[in-house]
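Researcher: Here's a chain I'd like modeled. Treat it as a single chain, no partners, no ligands.
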Amino acid sequence: MNPKLVPYETIIRATSGEPEAVDEVLRHYSKRIRIAAIENGHIDRDSEDSIKSRLVAALFKFRFDEQEI
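Model: Modeled as a single isolated chain. Structure tokens:
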């Protein structure tokens, strides 16, 4: 398993709305979100909250395609 990736099972649970899984995804990306929210050398809390909100919204919109193997 690659520690840089969110486990597949966690993504499945998060897209279903399981709060613990959503929190796990947010924790996994927290450092990247903080870096993206830096403005003028300081973390902009509004930007950080906006990025988190958009990530959660994207999780709930995500659908897995069924593929035959």
